[in-house]
Design a protein that fits this description.
Elements (H helix, E strand, L loop, with lengths): L16 H11 L6 H12 L8 H10 L4 H29 L3 H8 L3 H24 L4 H10 L4 H26 L1 H9 L1 H23 L1
Length: about 210
């Protein structure tokens, strides 16, 4: 009698797009291009890419904890340069190139959030940029809006350095002392962390008016 094929006890669920991007980002840590990839990711995340550079920074630091603060510096430089690119998009391309607004409002952030950031810039531009740079609030919407509403470039740069520097060097400190343990914990609880991250973004956006007002 022919035996029936063995059926696996469980079929792993299909990964969502966020997890696939997360895994793709992490894959760079296993190559010799990890550090350049970190700088590029940090640059892109400041204007359009959805995965934060912290992901790759953590993976690289887990492999070489003693270089954690170097990776934080790479993240910081790439992120601030990316902020300048985001500023350029808002300042020059936003109204000059057809389709730019539609792309960002469809795939990157909502029109309502973009307009809200513009209103907040009238109250305290430095605090808005710093808050977005340091917290899960989408940083890219603030960099592009900064260019569109012509806030001071000095304000954008200084607030970005302070906010992003505090964030990336805090990650570096954790990885320097905890190393691979932190990465294992993040991988194990990724789905929960994704939910918490989304909630943090929503709370952060709602709290922007409170902190600035």
């Amino acid at each position: 009698m022919k035996e029936s094929p063995e059926i696996p006890e469980s079929i792993p669920p299909k990964k969502n797009i966020v997890r696939r991007l997360y895994d793709w980002t992490l894959s760079w840590a296993e190559t010799r291009y990890g550090t350049p990839a970190l700088g590029t990711l940090s640059f892109c995340e400041s204007s359009f890419f959805p995965v934060p550079p912290d992901v790759l920074q953590i993976a690289l630091s887990a492999g070489k904890p003693l270089r954690s603060f170097w990776y934080a510096t790479v993240s910081l430089v790439g992120s601030v340069l990316g902020a300048l690119f985001g500023y350029l998009i808002g300042y020059v391309f936003w109204e000059q190139i057809p389709g730019v607004q539609d792309f960002f409002f469809t795939y990157v952030f909502s029109e309502e959030i973009f307009k809200r950031v513009g209103e907040l810039y009238d109250e305290n531009a430095f605090l808005v940029v710093f808050t977005a740079a340091f917290t899960p609030i989408p940083y890219k919407v603030c960099t592009i809006a900064a260019g569109f509403w012509h806030i001071s470039l000095v304000t954008l740069i200084v607030a970005s350095i302070v906010g992003r520097g505090a964030r990336f060097y805090a990650v570096a400190a954790v990885m320097y002392f905890l190393g691979p343990v932190a990465k294992i914990w993040i991988d194990r609880y990724f789905n929960l962390l994704t939910i918490l991250f989304t909630i943090a973004v929503i709370i952060g956006l709602a709290a922007m008016k409170f902190f600035v007002g």
